[in-house]
């Protein structure tokens, strides 16, 4: 039953409550509070906990102290909070979408490193690909004279059914040349359904 719950795409509860329930069950099953013992009992469930949706403060206060995750796993999730690159480890979920329903607006921050925004050599700069809500996403930065335009693209879906997603996103362009960073926000609906 617990595995069915942690695999669900839509739940009426927060991810931290899912984590707390899994840990509580693991402590009961292990008859121990030791992180390694609990881990052995919940290992098959770990890969379905969406740690990347917790936020860094919640993750560090509620997950790290349990001692259930390895140092490598903790480091990979913390790296995600700084870079937006999802972890690619066996027991850590790389799904960065919060659980919810289709009417929910997804908030997402895209980080993109730009060497020097003022002297962008090419006409455009394309980011890495992100996966969230079962879609591939990327950003494109385009230079028009002295202006920069930021575009968000939803490339292809991992599902073949009609879909619609509302995104409230923030683009954080990180400039490594000691010039100001740029932050742009937008709200947009993406869909493969003809209106």
From TrEMBL:
Looking up CDD domains in the UniProt record yields: MATH (cd00121)
**Which positions fall inside the MATH domain?**
114-192
Q: Which domain of life is it from?
A: Eukaryota
What name appears for this protein in its UniProt entry?
A: MATH domain-containing protein
Under the heading SUPFAM superfamilies, the entry gives: TRAF domain-like (SSF49599)
């Amino acid at each position: 039953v617990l595995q069915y719950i942690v695999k669900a795409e839509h739940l009426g509860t927060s991810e931290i409550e899912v984590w707390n329930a899994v840990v509580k069950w693991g402590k009961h099953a292990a008859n121990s509070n030791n992180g390694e013992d609990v881990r052995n009992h919940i290992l098959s469930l770990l890969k379905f906990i969406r740690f990347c949706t917790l936020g860094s403060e919640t993750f560090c206060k509620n997950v790290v102290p349990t001692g259930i995750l390895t140092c490598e796993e903790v480091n990979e999730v913390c790296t995600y909070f700084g870079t937006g690159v999802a972890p690619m480890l066996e027991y850590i979920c790389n799904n960065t979408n919060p659980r919810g329903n289709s009417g929910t607006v997804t908030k997402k921050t895209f980080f993109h490193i730009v060497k020097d925004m003022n002297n962008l050599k090419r006409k455009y700069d394309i980011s890495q690909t992100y996966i969230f809500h079962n879609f591939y996403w990327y950003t494109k930065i385009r230079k028009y004279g002295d202006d920069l335009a930021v575009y968000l693209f939803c490339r292809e879906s991992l599902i073949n059914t009609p879909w619609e997603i509302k995104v409230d996103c923030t683009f954080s362009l990180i400039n490594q040349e000691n010039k100001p960073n740029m932050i742009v926000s937008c709200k947009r609906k993406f869909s493969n359904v003809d209106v």
